[in-house]
UniProtKB/TrEMBL annotation:
<comment type="similarity">
    <text>Belongs to the TDD superfamily. TSR3 family.</text>
</comment>
<comment type="function">
    <text>Aminocarboxypropyltransferase that catalyzes the aminocarboxypropyl transfer on pseudouridine corresponding to position 914 in M.jannaschii 16S rRNA. It constitutes the last step in biosynthesis of the hypermodified N1-methyl-N3-(3-amino-3-carboxypropyl) pseudouridine (m1acp3-Psi).</text>
</comment>
<keyword id="KW-0808">Transferase</keyword>
<feature type="domain" description="RNase L inhibitor RLI-like possible metal-binding">
    <location>
        <begin position="3"/>
        <end position="31"/>
    </location>
</feature>
<dbReference type="InterPro" id="IPR007209">
    <property type="entry name" value="RNaseL-inhib-like_metal-bd_dom"/>
</dbReference>
<dbReference type="GO" id="GO:0000455">
    <property type="term" value="P:enzyme-directed rRNA pseudouridine synthesis"/>
</dbReference>
<dbReference type="GO" id="GO:1904047">
    <property type="term" value="F:S-adenosyl-L-methionine binding"/>
</dbReference>
<feature type="domain" description="16S/18S rRNA aminocarboxypropyltransferase Tsr3 C-terminal">
    <location>
        <begin position="40"/>
        <end position="163"/>
    </location>
</feature>
<dbReference type="Pfam" id="PF04068">
    <property type="entry name" value="Fer4_RLI"/>
</dbReference>
<dbReference type="InterPro" id="IPR007177">
    <property type="entry name" value="Tsr3_C"/>
</dbReference>
<feature type="binding site">
    <location>
        <position position="65"/>
    </location>
    <ligand>
        <name>S-adenosyl-L-methionine</name>
    </ligand>
</feature>
<keyword id="KW-0698">rRNA processing</keyword>
<keyword id="KW-0690">Ribosome biogenesis</keyword>
<protein>
    <recommendedName>
        <fullName>16S rRNA aminocarboxypropyltransferase</fullName>
        <ecNumber>2.5.1.157</ecNumber>
    </recommendedName>
</protein>
<keyword id="KW-0949">S-adenosyl-L-methionine</keyword>
<feature type="binding site">
    <location>
        <position position="17"/>
    </location>
    <ligand>
        <name>S-adenosyl-L-methionine</name>
    </ligand>
</feature>
<dbReference type="InterPro" id="IPR022968">
    <property type="entry name" value="Tsr3-like"/>
</dbReference>
Length: 170
């Protein structure tokens, strides 16, 4: 699985997971949107959830946007490709630990790999981060269940289980 990141550079460079992925040759960063190749674009504003059925649509390419959550508006995701939203997952990064849907770039890419049943690729992406294994542990059950789904509608049904449980806890 080839990983590409459109890098906006608007967050703390010391905490930027995309820059660290580039440093360890695990992702290719693009500073201009027109350089980003066609692939499955991880877009929290997409109308359809990412599912194993999308693995072939992106031709083996995952694309993420690295920006601050404050600037992650729909307009920022103007890249070519198949746009999909990640289902319910919980962040393990130190800034957003335990928060649903507040994933770093590397967490998003690793989650997509797991949903595509590419667990080794996910582990490889997360290696440079001391909390990387924690992400997979925290989300072990949902990632496994999502990877067993056939399509987006099944993903949404599984996600609804987690959202209902989340609502009960609050």
């Amino acid at each position: 699985m080839e990983c590409h990141v459109y890098y906006e550079g608007d967050d703390d460079p010391k905490k930027c997971t995309a820059r660290r992925l580039e440093k360890f040759d695990k992702a290719i960063l693009h500073r201009r949107m027109e350089q980003v190749p066609y692939g499955v674009v991880l877009n929290p504003h997409a109308e359809q959830a990412l599912s194993p059925a999308d693995a072939e649509d992106g031709l083996g390419t995952l694309v993420a946007l690295d920006c601050s959550w404050e600037s992650a508006e729909a307009a920022a995701f103007r890249m070519n490709g198949v746009h999909r939203a990640l289902p319910f997952l919980v962040a393990a990064n130190p800034v957003n630990y335990g928060r649903p849907f507040q994933l770093t770039t590397v967490e998003a890419l690793a989650a997509a790999c797991c949903i595509f049943d590419e667990y080794e690729a996910a582990e490889t992406l997360l290696e440079p981060f001391r909390w990387g294994e924690t992400f997979l542990t925290l989300n072990e059950e949902p990632l496994r269940r999502y990877s067993e789904c056939a399509d987006s509608s099944e993903i949404v049904a599984v996600q609804d289980d987690y959202l209902a449980a989340e609502d009960e806890q609050q």
